[in-house]
Design goal:
Blueprint (H helix, E strand, L loop, with lengths): L5 E7 L23 E6 H14 L4 E6 L8 H4 L5 H10 L6 E7 L4 E5 L4 E8 L2 E6 L42 E5 L4 E4 L4 E6 L4 E8 L16 H19 L4 H14 L4 H12 L4 H12 L12
Antiparallel strand pairs: 1-2, 1-3, 3-4, 4-11, 5-10, 6-9, 6-11, 7-8, 7-10
Helix pairs in contact: 4-6, 5-7
């Protein structure tokens, strides 16, 4: 049983559990790790969590562990209806669920705004959790960290409850959808949809099953008109390609040079490269400047650690 084996436990001095991946810091940002990650048994996690609550501490703990590789849970897993996520994925034309994660958190534990690049079937198992979701097309209004930052796919806004609208004024135009998840609820989170979650009960439990979305098929040519969802993916890809072309550690200066070139009408290398990419996806020339400014505005030339 899990009380005797070690699992991944995250510890935070506050209720916020900002996700990060140090392997993704290809931009070589001066990054200050916001959450401690340790391996300990479920029993240790449970005892420490209870102690923090008894002491009235602001600190919180959060367990996040994949279900894979836990042969000690075989008897328990045999009682689960695994065919449900498989059947849903097949019906939707996704790949088979290839990743999963169990989440167990203390009361008040909060997951800042972020998005997944896969289809997410989110099951609420125990207790209640509140959630706010935003569509992928709100990308610019959610101010994601640079794609070369450890917090890639995370919103610098962090929380929709107490956003810094002075730093992130475009967030005021974002349209969020709120719900309270109860035990037994299933929520579908589409590719790219931003979500923020907070536990309303101690030891609330959830499980995510992720499936891969089939790649866009351009075998018959690039469409004449991209959807807003597709253009949002273009924004991310554009930024990643600029990082590859001019060096990931130079992304900040490259994006600031791009913004300056657009505003001053200078014909510099980074702007030429960006225009060639946008022309390849048939974005009309008259729409390119606004599109490029949306990618850069409010996201570069700032102190990122302030929003981690």
């Amino acid at each position: 049983m899990w009380q005797f084996c070690e699992v991944l436990v995250k510890k935070s001095a506050t209720c916020k559990f900002r996700y990060f991946d140090l392997k993704k810091n290809i931009g070589k940002f001066d990054f200050q790790q916001p959450v401690e990650e340790v391996q300990e048994t479920f029993s240790e996690f449970s005892r420490e969590s209870e102690k923090l609550l008894e002491e009235g501490s602001d600190a919180r703990m959060y367990l996040q562990e994949t279900l894979s590789g836990h042969c000690e849970m075989a008897e328990e897993f045999a009682t689960w209806k695994w065919e449900l996520p498989i059947r849903i994925s097949a019906a939707c034309g996704w790949g088979l669920p290839d990743s999963n994660e169990l989440f167990v958190g203390m009361h008040g534990a909060e997951t800042p705004l972020h998005f997944d690049e896969r289809e997410n079937l989110f099951f609420q198992i125990r207790g209640q959790k509140e959630i706010v979701v935003f569509p992928f097309v709100d990308y610019k209004r959610l101010y994601p960290f640079p794609t070369t930052h450890p917090c890639d796919r995370q919103s610098m806004v962090g929380s929709p409850v107490d956003p810094d609208v002075t730093a992130f004024p475009e967030f005021l135009g974002a349209v969020g959808h709120f719900a309270t998840l109860k035990a037994g609820d299933l929520l579908y989170l589409p590719y790219g949809w931003w979500h923020w979650l907070r536990n309303l009960e101690h030891m609330a439990m959830s499980i995510s099953f992720w499936s891969t979305t089939p790649s866009t098929d351009f075998a018959n040519g690039i469409p004449d008109k991209f959807t807003d969802h597709m253009l949002t993916r273009v924004k991310r890809n554009l930024e990643s390609l600029i990082a590859q072309q001019f060096g990931p550690e130079n992304l900040n200066s490259s994006m600031l040079d791009l913004k300056k070139a657009v505003e001053s009408k200078e014909d510099v290398a980074v702007l030429q490269y960006a225009r060639s990419l946008l022309s390849a996806v048939k974005l009309p020339p008259e729409e390119q400047d606004g599109f490029l400014l949306e990618v850069v505005q409010g996201r570069f030339g700032i102190d990122w650690n302030r929003y981690v």
